[in-house]
Design goal:
Mean pLDDT: 91
Low-confidence stretches: 1-7
Helix content: 25-40%
Length: 498
């Protein structure tokens, strides 16, 4: 593939604003998913010369790249990939978050000595496109990121601010910074992949909700995963929000290089300390953002109210407290937060009640893609028929099974890693009835799983899809898995259970 190159080189050091002269900058972009395309689109708008290297790409994005004047190298079928990329003589290389550190193109990128950046880094430089730059609030954690991001944005909106939830939540941050309306705040959900590659940003506030084994195959070790997550607190200017019941998140705050004046704000389901948010009996309280916090606290909501809003599960209450801390750090009133909670709706596939029939509750928590998330879902119920399995991502289910075997009416195992899951149940819960869905046909998996659940479930049980594993072995994504479950339940309800 012949790629035209210019001879003028540019330094990233001089490109610190949308209004800098980016024209002619040569950029290699690794990946053409939503993130990679947003990078290519943005750099094309800045009149850069862009070469995308992607393993695959859908036809629409390929056509749009052609319209934008962006060259695309499909690496799955190309030879001499590194040589072609080297001959392009890039000034920067932008890595999409799906590329693991040991990917051959990432190793090539690092070996070149050319600056390797992310879409987050570019967005930080380009954040002044539409008037005064928005403040950034960063949110990460093994679980609860998306709900907490949405909650925080909803609370800020109730406080009168213009807000864009973005990042790993689905809207690339480069699309958000180019929105002509402009915003007061970006609430940026960040995955460990994004944080691994992210350079320096200076956020208003940040939160790490929790840490548990996840994505160990991508990072290589738990330590590397934790180190990536810890970057969320670097350079925070106002508030570092951490989980008081998770020592790793507290250690992250203690070790972070923050801007003078930044505060550590804890949250938990216990009684709050003087810089915390928590629970006093059934009242959610802020004891961090008031002058007389030694003797007083501000009421935000109650567990009874959260139950009315579908937010009373313990992990949801923790998300509410974390989001409230971030909103209070931005001077949103407790009254505005209360209003926001009353109008908030949790996304599908996150502990979503699909149906209730004959005193059996069917819950879709397909977003529980790791043991930590599944643990939170299981803890919310006393008697469960559990649908579990998928891609384990190098993580063991042993502790999870041991902790919850007492509440299991039965278990249905799905996914390609079934043997490992079945073995774990044999070791740690031999008395629990287990059924295996051994089909490889996506269209049949949930039909069979629901059939088994119908036979197992009794009055007042919960049938819980909380797979504790990724979905891409048999489904497009966790949402596809959740939809298949909901459809199978609805079919069953319309027939045998109705």
């Amino acid at each position: 593939m012949a790629v035209p190159v210019t001879i003028v080189s540019k330094s990233l050091d001089d490109l610190i604003s949308w209004h800098s002269d980016w024209s002619g900058l040569r950029a290699v972009v690794l990946g053409l998913g939503s993130t990679g395309f947003s990078v290519a689109d943005t750099l094309a708008e800045l009149e850069c010369q862009v070469l995308v290297a992607a393993q695959s790409a859908d036809e629409l994005r390929l056509k749009m790249c052609d319209v934008l004047g962006v060259d695309v190298l499909l690496t799955a079928s190309a030879e001499n990939i590194e040589q072609t990329l080297t001959e392009f003589n890039a000034d920067i290389i932008v890595v999409s978050p799906g590329y693991a550190p040991r990917h051959r193109l990432v190793e090539w990128a690092i070996s070149t000595g050319v600056p390797v950046v992310t879409d987050i880094d570019l967005a930080w430089r380009l954040r002044d496109k539409v008037g005064a730059p928005a403040e950034w609030i960063l949110i990460t954690g093994t679980n609860g990121k998306t709900t907490t991001t949405q909650l925080t944005a909803h609370m800020l909106q109730a406080g009168g601010f213009r807000v864009a939830p973005c990042g790993n939540i689905g809207v690339p941050i480069l699309d958000a910074i180019r929105d002509p309306e402009g915003f007061d705040f970006f609430v940026v959900e960040l995955s460990s992949y994004q944080l691994h590659y992210m350079g320096e940003v200076f956020p208003h506030s940040a939160a790490c909700l929790n840490i548990a084994d996840d994505h160990l195959d991508w990072h290589g070790s738990l330590q590397a995963y934790v180190e990536a997550k810890a970057k969320v607190f670097h350079n925070v200017r106002v508030a570092c929000v951490y989980n008081r019941t998770d020592p790793l998140t507290e250690a992250m705050v203690e070790g972070a290089e923050v801007i003078d004046g930044a505060r550590a704000i804890g949250f938990s389901l216990g009684v709050p300390g003087m810089s915390d948010l928590g629970l006093v009996e059934d009242v959610l309280c802020d004891r961090a953002f008031l002058d007389d916090r030694k003797d007083r606290a501000i009421e935000i909501s109650t567990l009874t109210e959260l139950a009315d809003f579908g937010l009373a599960a313990p992990h949801m209450v923790a998300n509410v407290l974390a989001a409230s801390a971030l909103a209070r750090a931005c001077d949103v009133t407790a009254e505005a937060i209360s209003v926001a909670l009353s109008t908030f709706s949790v996304d599908a596939h996150r502990h979503e009640i699909v149906a209730v029939s004959k005193s059996i509750t069917w819950i879709n928590d397909s977003k529980a893609t790791n043991p930590h998330a599944a643990n939170a879902a299981l803890m919310a119920h006393d008697s469960v028929v559990w649908i579990v399995g998928g891609l384990l991502k190098g993580v063991s289910l042993d502790n999870l099974i041991s902790a919850h075997k007492h509440r299991l009416r039965g278990v249905i195992v799905i996914g390609l890693d079934r043997a490992e899951v079945l073995s774990a149940f044999e070791r740690h819960a031999p008395g629990v009835p287990v059924r295996e869905v051994d089909t490889t046909e996506t269209s049949e998996v949930m039909t069979l799983a629901v059939d088994f659940a119908v036979a197992m479930a009794e009055s007042n049980d919960v049938v819980l899809l909380a797979p504790a594993a990724a979905s891409m072995d048999q489904f497009i994504d966790y949402a596809h898995r959740g939809r298949e479950f909901a459809e199978a339940v609805n079919t069953a309800l319309g027939g045998r259970l109705g």
